[in-house]
Each structure stands twice: as C-alpha cells, then as structure tokens.
Amino acid sequence: MKITDAKVFVGGPGKNYVTLKIMTDQGVYGLGDATLNNRETLPAAYLQDYLIPNLIGLDPRNSEDIWQYFYRGAYFRKGPIAMAAFGAIDMALWDIKGKLANMPLYQLFGGKSRDGAMVYAHATGADLPDLMDSIAAYIDEGYKAVRVQCGIPGMPTASYAVPETKGASKDYITDFSGIIPKTEIWDTDTYMRYMPGALADIRAKFGPDLKLLHDVHHRLTPREAAAFAKAVEPVGLFWLEDPTPAEDQNALRMIRHHSTTPIAIGEVFNSVWDCNRLIEDELIDFIRLAVTYGGGITPMKRIIELAGFHNVRTGFHGAPSHSPISMAAQHHLNAWAPNFGIQEYLVLGTPECDELFPSDHKMENGMMYVSDAPGLGVDFDEGEAQRYSYKPGSHPVVRLQDGTMWNY
Ligand code: KDG
Ligand code: MG
Known about the structure:
The protein is of the alpha/beta class and 408 residues long. The chain has helices at 41-55, 63-73, 80-101, 105-109, 128-140, 188-206, 222-231, 251-258, 276-280, 297-309, 324-336, 351-356, 382-385; strands spanning 3-10, 18-24, 29-33, 116-125, 145-150, 183-186, 211-215, 239-241, 263-265, 286-287, 313-314, 343-344, 362-364, 367-369, 397-400, 405-406. The strands form three sheets. Strands 4, 5, 7, 8, 9, 10, 11, 12, 13 and 14 form a ten-stranded mixed sheet that branches. A three-stranded antiparallel sheet has the order 1-2-3. A three-stranded mixed sheet has the order 6-15-16, with no helix packed on it. The protein is globular, with a radius of gyration of 21 Å. Residues 215, 217, 241-242, 267 line the site of magnesium ion.
C-alpha cells in the first residue's frame, strides 16, 4: 500500500483551519489538522514544501516509522510549527489505519473507558453579574463544568478572554484580525485583589456541584501564582490554568508547595520535553497539550501514559483554533484514556463548520459521545473548502501600565 498524493487547504468559517488530506493507492484517504492559531501559513508551508514530497510512495500503515522519520529527520527538533505539521500527518495516518481496520480509533487504542467524556465551556462576562448570567445559561444547557472569566473593575482594558462587547460570551470565536496585534494592559495587583472574591461569589451562588475552572493565562510570577492558588483554595476549583508561563518547569514547584488547588498547564507545549518534569515530579494535575501542537496521536499516547503513572489527568486544549479533525482525534483519546480528566469544548457547530467537516460526534448535556464511524469519524468537503481563504490574524499583546511587555 502506498501514499499517492497529499493536499493542504487553509481556510474555514471564522478560522484559518489547516487541513491535510492524504490519498492512497487503495482509495482510502486520511485527514489531519495542522492549525497553529494565527501562524497558520507556516505549518502549511512546512507540509507543502518539505513533508508532502517525502510522503509520496511511503506505506501509510507505518505511522510510527513515518513519525520518527520526520521528527528525527528534521534535525532541528520540536517547535510548534514542525510539531503541528507532523501532527496533521500522524492524525491522517491513524485515520487511514482505522478505516482499513473498519474500526473507530478508540478501538485501536484499547476500547472505551467511558461512554461520555465531560467537557467544559467558556463562561465570560463584562463584569461579575454578566458572568453569572453566562454561567447560568450553560447550566441550563446541561454543562457540568465551566471556565469562568470576567472583566475586572479598575483593569485598564478587557481582561483575558473577556469580549469587549457585553453579552458576546457565547461567541468566543474572537476576531483578532490583522497582522498588527491589539495591546491589552494588565495590572497584577488589581487582578489579585478582585478575582479570589469573585470566584468565591460564583461558588456561593451556584453551589458545590458545578465544576469551576479559571484561566490565569500565564500572567503571574511563581510567587504570585502560589499566593493566588492559596487564596482560592476554599472555592474548590476543578483547576487553575496556566498560572505562570511554564518554560521554567521548576516554577511550578513553588505553587505546589503552597497550595492544594489543582493546576492545569500546557496548551502552548509541543513535546514531552516541555512537561516531563512537571509530570514526573507530580507538580501538576492536568496536562493541556493538544494533539495538534503535540505532534499527533503517536506522541500524545505516550504523554498520556506517562501522565497516568503520576496521577496527572488529561485536559486537552480545545479552543476554536482546533478544527473538528483534531477535536475528533481528542474525542477518541478521551474515550480511551484511563486518566481522562476533562475536554475543553467550544461550540464549533455552526452550520458552515458542520458542512465543511461532516461528523456525528455528539455533544449532549455537557458530555461528548464519540462517533463509531471507522477512523477519526469526521470528513472534509473539498467543494465547501473553496468558499474560504486565508485571513491574517494576531493574538493581542500585553503590557503593564508603565509599558513593560508582559505575557498574553
Ligand atoms: O491561541 C491561543 C488561544 O487558544 C488561547 O488563548 C485560548 O487559553 C486559551 C484556552 O484555554 O482555550
Ligand atoms: Mg488557556
């Protein structure tokens, strides 16, 4: 069996999804997602210029060897661009494998460990009462877990993930359009004074059962993060996300030593070498690395298994920049992983997105039910794809009030 061709498409409704389609001499094809949010043309070029010419003629069933060939063969290892490109190839090869076996991927991993996988939504508000309304709306829809973010009185611009327009909480598909980023202003003292009380008010209003998550988005130093994690302990968060930037894996030790608040980290990681110490030293509770940026299913299975030995559960990144293809890969891993924790899931199901990526993975009452179709269980309509083209975008940048650059 041989790979005969592969194509890359960039575009989609409201997002520049990077979709890879690998064709074979037996008519079976596989799909992969290489979307690197706001840098989408780079993994697309890596695939187009370097990887696809090397794929032609290879046996698609040898997904392990093909992964090693590209990873070791690159010489310059890791990095989000390369890993997103390898990830798309790996997903597509697993998709082909599942179709050849006539089995959904979770069966090839070892079968189902659960029927439905719990997901969390993003509740946001311009202020706390607005956030409370947003949380209540998700509870009405059956969600058991919500990430909560709100505007902070005295913060000079909108705080992380808060849409500028009040009431836009369900449309988190933010339009960071243009190559020049917007600038947000951050003030740690204002955040530290306000947010623990706001989280306590949310817990008091909604009771003990709702799973509450909060994303600090890399804004604190290790000492500040330790103080914050300690202050919010009585709230009983499901997790506190990205309290610090984690290039320095040792930084997480400070938080762990001072608090029992569960910590989730890793949405910007792209390799086990970004988190091996965090996992092995049990400094975190949830690993957030996504199957796209993590280099695909092959390396992610190893990370999940390493995490499982150390009481670390999964909590894969699921922002709208992941197309339904990589989300499907995560649904299969979530159905299987014995140490599954939760899945971030944002409402991707616009009619346009469903037409571009038909699938029958089903969300019901805050739980994701994986499809039983062979392979990934998601398709790609090339005709529909012709409607979309690449639109440049940027993440905002963050500065302190005196102008110092900070972490988005
Ligand atoms: O590309 C960056 C976004 O995906 C990120 O800001 C979203 O923090 C995020 C999250 O938890 O989904
Ligand atoms: Mg996050």
